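Appendix B, example 12.
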Amino acid sequence: MVNLVGLLLLHYAFMFYSVNGKTHHHTFVVKSASYTRLCSTKHILTVNGRFPGPTLRAQRGDKMIIKVYNSGKDNITLHWHGVKQPRNPWSDGPAYITQCPIQPGKKYTYRIHFTTEEGTMWWHAHLGWSRATVHGAIIIYPKRRSLYPFPHPHGEVLIILASVLITAGEWWKKDVMEIERNATITGGEPQISDAFTINGQPGDLYPCSKPGTFKVKVENGKRYLLRIVNAVMNYKLFFSIAKHKMTLVGTDGSYTKPFQTNYIMITPGQSMDVLLEANQHPSLYYMAASSYFTISDSEFDNTTTTALLQYNDPSPSPLMPHLPDHNQTQAATRFTKKLRSLASKKHPVRVPLTVDTKLFVTLSINLVNCSTAKPCEGPYNTRFSASLNNISFIMPTSCDILWAYYYGIDGVFDKDFPSKPPNAFNYTGNDLPDNLLMPDFGTKVTVLKYNARVELILQGTNVLEGDNHPFHMHGYSFYVVGWGFGNFNPRRDPLRFNLMDPPEQNTVGVPRNGWVAIRFRADNPGVWMMHCHVEDHQEWGMKSVFVVEDGDDPQAKILPPPLDLPEC
């Protein structure tokens, strides 16, 4: 049972720290631990033996020093999802992009600075499928003597899916690292998950799972802040609570204009803050999550994970919420189109009104031929691949891109990622020609001038088959100024851009066979990854890198590398 009083007291304790911020110290030990789910026991990779991992709490402006010891058998890195890490890409975490992995038996210290972030974010492993079990939440409270820009909650809940903190995750009966290795060898799709989880528990509807179902106890007449993280590897999720409406007040560490909703649609990598009014009759009410999945004739996890909202003196039979059907794009769209930044005096919008750098990037699922002697397990005996502007990203291995950039080492990456597709076509059309299926390969980056005002159009395609792509950018949050279905029209669509109160996010869902327009100012020098947060797509090559050059001021230059940086 969640101790809401303890969580609330912890929040008030943070209010007494110095206005200049506090430095928090943590130790993370990455190690194997035994967990029992779905009637069987296996060893999984964890931090400090916990699944989900530890929740990190701080106030806006605070810093953290996190010592990570790798006591596992595989390489590892950690990423602080949504934390901008100004001038310090050395602590951002993506393997072979900003650091070499922490090898077994080795250690590395991450240094984190929370600047403008406020709300719920999360941390996770950033090397292969290790993030399936190595992840946890980050809660950034307002500064001392500052208040939430919404009615103050009586308690909080964390939900890792995931304040209650709610984290949504997944569970496989088999070893997830072995599933990843097998998919890499065969070229096919990885095995789908056996269950979704809420805070590490599948819930009542799965075998052998009822006793461990996550429970939240509430009191009638009180208000609760639910902090929700989608830590799932490959699925967008609908989430709802029986007989209760939610009020969305934040996403990805930024506040939003509040709006009431019966459900949320949250993509992998996103976090959301919602208020819950405990205003129903004493009873048991299910919180539930299930997949939003739009690819036809494709196998997917069609199960539902549940947790319990419990009033005093509840009835014994929980009520189930109505969740949209798995392919209800209209339901997903109705929710997403309501997102707006708070745009208040204390939380202003700083979207670039004009731009000097325009990028147009297509997102495609591709295929690569295999030998006839050893066919692969993708469609037509091929291997799955994925690309941005028809470039499937190849990870370097001799050293990471940040190290090569900082020290001017040639041959690690190329600076010629195309600013638009090499060949224009009807991106979302049907029956596209087969020559679009095969991508080119390379380690190509985009170089941005410091303080460039960037507009990036992310265009989904129907190559092989269209899909939703939750796109995440490291080192930055950005403003989602527009989105739509079909092909982006450069003459008509910018006329509808929202430049007044666009939502500020670090992960945005590009709709299936649609587009998203984002804007940001390139004011954080360094090497910053951008990628699809569907793990399959990222592993197949749907990723790239921004290299943001130093500015003239000493405070606009990358910090020097730490002495304990891991070696490749």
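The two ends are 43 Å apart (CA to CA). Residues 1-19 have pLDDT under 50 and may be disordered.
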